[in-house]
Amino acid sequence: MPKLKTHKGAKGRFHVTGSGKILRAKCGKSHFRRRKAPRTKRLYDRMIPTSSADVPRLRRLMPNS
Q1: Shortest CA distance to 26 belongs to which of 6, 44, 8?
Q2: Distance between terminal CA atoms of the chain?
Q3: What pTM does this model have?
Q4: Which of 16, 31, 43, 49 has the least C-beta neighbours within 10 A?
């Protein structure tokens, strides 16, 4: 069987923690950022857990993580 390759787009967008959770960034991070409040902009800096419905699909995209 051939080696499984990592999807490069998924690799850049998602981060896998040591315990195996998949984290993602929030959307709306760059466009119209000047008009948002500083507190709101700080919330965009955090990574948040991915929905449990999306986890199996992301595991297939990133088999080596």
Answers
A1: 44
A2: 19
A3: 0.81
A4: 31
- Alpha-carbon span 37 to 45, nearest angstrom: 13
Q: Is the sign of the CA dihedral 37, 39, 40, 46 positive or negative?
A: positive
What confidence category does residue 28 fall into, taking pLDDT thresholds of 50, 70 and 90? Answer: confident
3-state secondary structure of 37: coil
Q: Is 20 a residue whose pLDDT tops 90?
A: yes
Name residue 35's amino acid. Answer: R
Phi, psi (deg, nearest 5) at residue 9? -70, -40
Q: Which two tokens stand for residue 6?
A: 């990592």
Paired tokens of 43 = 């919330």
**Residues in the chain, how many?**
65
